[in-house]
Amino acid sequence: MTRPAATSETLVDDDRVRVTRFDFDPGAETGWHRHEYDYVITAITNCEMLLEEPGGENRTVSVPSGTAYRRTEGVEHNVINGGDKPMSFVEVELK
To answer: Which of 8, 28, 80, 93 has the fewest Cβ atoms surrounding its Cβ within 10 A?
Structure first.
C-alpha cells in the first residue's frame, strides 16, 4: 500500500542541533529511517502515531500536544499518522 508522504521543514541545522518540523495528513508516513543522533520530539498537535518497526512489529503511540519524549540514536522505524486528523511535531536532533 502506498501512503502519502509527510512533509518536513528544517528550521535549524548547525554543528550542535538539527530542528525539523514534520506535518502529516491522516495516513501520511515518514518512510523507513534510522536516527543517527539522540533526539527529542515535541508534539504540536495531538499525535496518534502508528510505528512500523523492524521485524514486522507495529505499535501505536499517543503523544498529547505540548508534550515531549526522548529517544537514543539508532532507532529505526516508519512513523505514520494513524489518526483521522492532521498531526505535527518538532524533532530536535542532538549532534
So the answer is: 8
Q: Which residue blocks in 1-95 are alpha helix, DSSP H?
A: none
**Rounded distance between C-alpha atoms, residue 29 and residue 4, angstroms:** 6
Q: What is the DSSP letter of 5?
A: B
Model pLDDT for residues 60-74, shown as the tens digit of each residue:
999 999 999 999 999
Query: Which parts of the chain sit beneath pLDDT 70?
Result: 1
Model-level pTM?
Answer: 0.95
Q: What distance in Å separates the CA atoms of residue 57 and residue 24, rounded to the nearest whole number? A: 21
DSSP-derived letter for residue 72 is: -
